Amino acid sequence: MTTRREQTSHESSELILRAAAELFAAKGYRQTTFADVAERSGISRGSIPWHFGSKEGLLLAVLERSVDLIRTGLPEEPAEGAEPEEVAAGFDRLMGGADALFAQPTTKLFVTLLVEALEPGSPIHGRYVEIHNTLRDHCRRWLERLPLPPGLSAETLAVTIIGAGIGIHQQWLLAPERVDPEQALVALRTLVDGAVLSAGE
Q: HTH tetR-type domain spans which residues (predicted)?
């Protein structure tokens, strides 16, 4: 049975993680301080290292939480032997889920932290790679059940879909007045639907 103290500790951790994710996405990892996180979360500054040890530990915890949120939000994969119509309907749900995923603040966090992940010896490199692998693998397994144009593999199309979705948000962060991510994602979905539908005819 969870004690009141354990419950309070868990609630505090969640508040800190949510605040840190928002700040890392908005300001970047290097520009965010414990004082910023404390102010945003309403939790004392001294409690942050008590929960996460260091700023690096907090960043890793934020990414771990993001991976869990992504996995929870992904639709179930098609069953073996599913009818083509069922798989196609499921893929439509997958693309809808991708729209929702790319619209989340979490995606902005991935874009913001890209530079951090690419630095030699980065503590988040492995976790960042895992996030991309999770998205690509899930998308690929759906695509493997669908008729694709000759010469186009499910792996390649999965890379294209995930890369385009994140790239759209990267452009939006750089020029929000010129880029509409919702419309761009609709265009991406239309292109993918067209390729799949034409291959199935």
A: 10-70
Residue among 37, 159, 139 at smallest CA distance from 91: 139
Asked whether residue 90 is assigned to any structural domain, the reply reads: yes
Residues 91-101: tens digit of each pLDDT: 666 666 666 66
Q: Structure pTM?
A: 0.72
Per DSSP, the residues of 171-199 read HHHH-TTT--HHHHHHHHHHHHHHHHHHH
CA-nearest of 37, 43, 35, 98 to 62 is: 37
Task: Domain count for the chain, please give it.
Answer: 2
For residue 55, tell me if it sits in a domain. yes
Long-range contacts of 68-74 (CB under 8 A, 24+ apart): 69/104, 69/106, 70/101, 70/106, 70/131, 70/134, 70/135, 71/134, 73/97, 73/100, 73/101, 74/101, 74/138
For 189, residues 6+ apart whose C-beta sits below 8 A from its C-beta are 95, 98, 99
pLDDT tens digits, one per residue of 119-142: 888 888 888 888 888 889 988 888
